[in-house]
Amino acid sequence: MGGILQGKKVLVTGVLDRRSIAYTVARIAQEQGAEIALSSFGRAASLTRRTARRMDPEPPVLELDANKPEDIENVARELGECWGEVDGVVHAIAFAPEDALGGNFLNAGWPSVATALQTSAYSLKAIAAGLAGIMPEGSSVVGLDFDASVAWPAYDWMGVAKAALESTARYLARDLGERGIRVNLVSAGPLKTLAASGISGFSEIEGVWDKRAPLGWKANDPEPVGRAVVSLLSDWWPATTGEIVHVDGGYHAMGTDIR
Hints:
This protein has helices spanning 21-31, 44-52, 69-82, 110-131, 156-176, 194-197, 203-212, 223-233; strands at residues 9-13, 35-40, 61-63, 88-91, 140-145, 182-188, 244-247. The protein is α/β, with parallel strands linked by helices. The chain has one domain (9-251): 3-Layer(aba) Sandwich (Rossmann fold). Strands 3-2-1-4-5-6-7 form a 7-stranded parallel β-sheet, sandwiched between helices. The N and C termini lie far apart (43 Å). The model has no long low-confidence stretch (mean pLDDT 94).
C-alpha cells in the first residue's frame, strides 16, 4: 500500500545537511511515496548534493536562488519538462545578515533588514507564484515558520521577517485559493540545525522550551515537524489554507511555566 504522498511530485528547498528540517521533510516525503527534487545554490549547493547522495533514490538538485527571478523561471521550466506538474512545494528558506541578529535590532541598517525580508518572506510569494502555473488543483505549498507573535532573544529582524512570512502566506492563500492551491505554515519549536547554530543567543530560547511545553520538546528531533509538513502536503487537508500549524510541544499555548 502506498503512502500519503504516493504519486506526488514535490520540490523541497532548504536542504543542507541531515540536521536540516527540510532534509527530514524530504526523507519522509520519499518514504510516503513522493518523487522529490531539492534546490540549492552557491556554496551551499555542494553540501546539498552531498546530502542528496545519501537519499534513495537520489533526488536531483536544482539551482535556485530565491532572490533571482530567472532562477525561479528556470526551475519552473525544468520541473515542467521533467514532471509536467508539481504537487507540492516546501519553503524552508530563511536568512538574515549577522548584523540583523543577535541583539542588533536597534543598530541594523535597512540593507540588512531588506535582505532578511526578501529572502525569508518575499521568497515564499516569489516561488509560489513562479511555480503556480504548473501546480494542479489540490496542490500544496508549505512553509517553515517560527512563532512571530512575540519578541524573542537574539532573533531580532528574523522575527520581523517571520511575521512578514505569516502575512504573506495568508495573502497567498487568498490569491491562490481560486486555483485550488493551499498555502500553510508549520511553526516549529527550536531545533538544533546548522542555520540555528549561526544565531548568537538562540540557545537561550532552546534552553527553556522543554520546561514550558506540556508535551516536552526535543531540540535534536525534527521528526514531528517533518511529519506535519508531509501531512499538509498530502490530500488529508483539502479545506485548510492560510493556517499556521504549531508543532512545538504546545509551548505557544502556555501563558507561563506549567511545571
